[in-house]
Design goal:
alpha/beta; Enzyme I, Chain A, domain 2; TIM Barrel; 14% strand; binds phosphoenolpyruvate; binds magnesium ion
């Protein structure tokens, strides 16, 4: 490798791309405008504001109808928010009281941002959309170009401090060959959409501002690096080799199997019937995580057992006779469910959430398990292969109590490994249940004491962190010893290099967004079990996350 300037961030979508850098346009500075608009000019000022807000909402709506899938949903949601009467009324009232349109826009949005932040969870995440709407409306009022992603004639590597969901949703993969952000984490919108579009992507890259517009850059989403000053011939060779890998990913149809022949179950993470039907068209061999709480984010009252059964049945019907792992409600913290709300907690991520809430509310767990059991019996009276697991288990007593309720209904019982206490006592837990599933998103959050939603802590919320690898190791070892299944269903399973390490540690199934399955399938198909084990051993010797990944890659590349 030739020496060149190098920055390292967190690689979230594998792949190599080479093109000139293009920076996302920065939002306009909100002019400090303390004027009081004269009474007779206020109707015109209101009109200026309304026209700008309408234009911005209409642009989002047009992009939503031109896009498909998750991108279209994200854009449609932002269009609705842009046209929301609440903030528009607040802004027009301010203009009627004499404020300039730009100031009124900034103040009205700030008020709603504060309210959304107070609500927390998914609502707080929508503040990025609100701020994006503010920037676009202000640019429109001032007659400036629209902030956000450039629309280049030639392909570029898009660089940004961070991208709003609406920016990422409109990306054209034929023009944006790679994506690098200074902020944002592996679970940010940027990462999710880049994964869906298959655009190599690196997030959380410090000092990205060193790279100037137009500089030819080489992005590697596997190693999480961005380099410039690389000789063009070398860069083109790396891109060509990567193109071959991507062609193999497109051609891969499953099932999951190592080069040495051992099967590895590759499963999908879903949140509803529609997601399950999409997954059924991918090489997914079943469902490894059905996040039931996401079906109820707007439910004010607890759905009846038969209403719940109808929802769960839709997911089971997409995979008849296949393995489907249903997770009971993981309500609370970042996923607030109105009918199972436990508000006024100082620290909701450490509060009454997940199975703690299901136990605390009389009947909540029992009703849900009854609904799952009802859904598990198909029209012929036969049971699908339904496994049920609890989120946020911390003690053996909780696992025992949960397993007893599940088994009473003739279903297989498991627990998620998200709290380090379970990983540390994995064997004792596995004596109580039929299987374990490692939720690396929360396991990493709790092991590293780092909020998984905090973009500036992405270097800590990285499952390659040596301490997290240790917790996974002890959990997988318990499965091997007791001959019981241990899966991984957090984002770590979607990292093709880490997937090989997980299998080397003894993990028996990997569950991820269905779009991520082929890349993992190809990585496993290129590695023998012996290589996976050596990659795991090499990673465990490392003392930093970056070294762990580099050590594993070295073994797997040879
Ligand atoms: C996890 O924590 O890794 C997990 C899979 O659960 P969720 O992301 O839904 O919290
Ligand atoms: Mg979790």
């Amino acid at each position: 490798m030739t020496s060149a300037d190098l920055l390292t961030g967190t690689g979230v979508v594998p792949g190599i791309a080479y093109a000139p850098a293009g920076w996302a346009r920065k939002p306009p500075q909100v002019p400090v405008d303390t004027r009081i608009i004269r009474e007779e000019d206020r109707p015109a000022e209101t009109e200026r504001f309304r026209a700008a807000a309408d234009t911005v909402a209409a642009r989002f709506a047009a992009r939503a109808s031109a896009a498909t899938g998750a991108a279209s949903e994200v854009l449609a949601a932002t269009a609705t928010l842009a046209a929301d009467r609440g903030w528009i009324r607040t802004a027009t009232r301010q203009i009627a009281a004499g404020k300039p349109a730009t100031t009124a826009t900034a103040e009205a949005i700030a008020k709603f941002v504060a309210q959304f932040e107070k609500l927390g969870g998914l609502m707080a995440e929508r503040t990025t959309d609100l701020n994006d709407i503010r920037d676009r409306v202000i640019a429109e009022i001032l007659g400036l170009p629209e902030p956000g992603v450039p629309q280049p004639d030639q392909p570029i590597i898009l660089l940004a401090l961070d991208l709003a969901p609406s920016d990422t949703a409109g990306l054209d993969p034929s023009k944006i060959l790679g994506l690098v952000t200074q902020f944002g984490g592996p679970t940010s919108h940027t990462a999710i959409i880049a994964r869906q579009l298959g655009i190599p992507c690196v997030v959380a890259t410090p000092d990205l501002g060193l790279v100037e517009d137009g500089t030819a850059v080489l992005v590697d989403g596997t190693t999480g690096t961005i380099r410039w000053g690389v000789p063009e011939a070398e860069a083109r060779e790396l891109v060509a080799a990567d193109a071959n890998r991507r062609a193999a990913v497109r051609a891969w149809t499953g099932p999951g199997r190592l080069a040495s022949g051992e099967p590895v179950q590759l499963l999908a993470n879903v949140q509803d019937g529609a997601g399950a039907r999409t997954a059924a068209e991918s090489p997914a061999e079943g469902i490894g995580l059905f996040r039931t709480e996401l079906c109820f984010l707007t439910a004010q009252t607890e759905p009846s057992v038969s209403e719940q059964a109808a929802i769960y049945r839709e997911v089971l019907d997409a995979f008849p006779g296949k393995k489907v792992v249903v997770r009971t409600l993981d309500a609370g913290s970042d996923k607030p469910v109105p009918f199972a709300d436990h508000s006024h907690e100082e620290n909701p991520a450490l509060g009454v959430r997940g199975v703690r809430l299901s136990f605390a509310r009389e009947g909540l767990l029992e009703h849900q398990l009854d609904g799952i059991a009802e859904a598990a019996v198909d029209q012929q009276g036969e049971k699908s292969s339904v496994w049920v697991m609890a989120p946020m288990i911390s003690t053996i007593d909780e696992a025992r109590r949960f397993a007893a309720e599940v088994r009473k209904r003739g279903l297989l019982a498991g627990v998620m490994v998200e709290v380090p206490s379970v990983a540390l006592l994995a064997e004792a837990f596995l004596n109580e249940v039929d299987f374990l599933s490692i939720g690396t998103n929360d396991l990493t959050q709790y092991a590293m004491a780092a909020d998984r939603m905090a973009p500036d802590l992405a270097y800590l919320t990285d499952p390659w962190q040596p301490a997290v690898l240790r917790l996974i190791t002890s959990t997988a070892a318990a499965g091997v010893k007791l001959s019981k299944p241990v899966g991984v269903c957090g984002e770590a399973a979607a990292d093709p290099v880490l997937a090989c390490v997980l299998v080397g540690l003894g993990v028996t199934s990997l569950s991820m967004a269905s779009a991520a399955i082929p890349a993992v399938g190809v990585a496993l198909a290129n590695a023998t079990l012996e290589q996976c084990r050596r990659a795991a051993e090499a990673a465990l010797q490392a003392t930093t996350a970056a070294d762990a990944k580099a050590a594993a890659l070295e073994v797997l590349d040879n």
